[in-house]
Amino acid sequence: SVPAAPSILRRSRALRGGKRVRFAQVTVYYFARRQGFTCVPSAGGSSLGMAPRHHRARRYSLSQFAHLRQVSHRQHLRQHLRREKLRARRLTQNGTVPSAEAAGLTLADVSDDDLDVGQVEVGDYFYLQPLPTKRRRALLRASGVRRIDAEERQELRALRLSREQCGCLCRLTCEPRTCACSQAGIQCQ
Length: 189
Prior knowledge:
This protein has 189 residues and is α+β, with helices and mostly antiparallel strands. The chain contains seven helices and four strands, in the order αββββαααααα. It has a domain at 25-149. The longest helix has 29 residues, at 62-90. The chain is extended.
């Protein structure tokens, strides 16, 4: 009997050469914001997208990029905390009905001193959060999108509804005449 060749998974690091990938730079591509049509937000219409081609590219060292990212995350956190503080100030004591004077408050009325940014570790906190429809529309308008396609709302709603129903209703055996999966050319789920 011929002995089996040793597995490449079991070779020592020295035999494999110990090669490692090292990165020295990060290239960041900047795209203009467009109405999406390629993603499905969890609620509402006006999905966010980007232009097909970037308009600018920048190269950063790893340390520069890490610093820029931390600064950006801190700014996002500060804006989020500012919105939360404003929302809290707008509510009356029972927490349900905004008062007349509180309704006139803006983000400019919340100073950095009112925020507890130092209490939150940016790296532990930062993650992408869904944006409400009004904020997505405001971002699109601020980015120069003049006409927001209203039909997208119905298309996105139909997609969300279709994703709620997955698979077919077959029990034990597939009935190709009535099976939605089979009729769509998909193996019965």
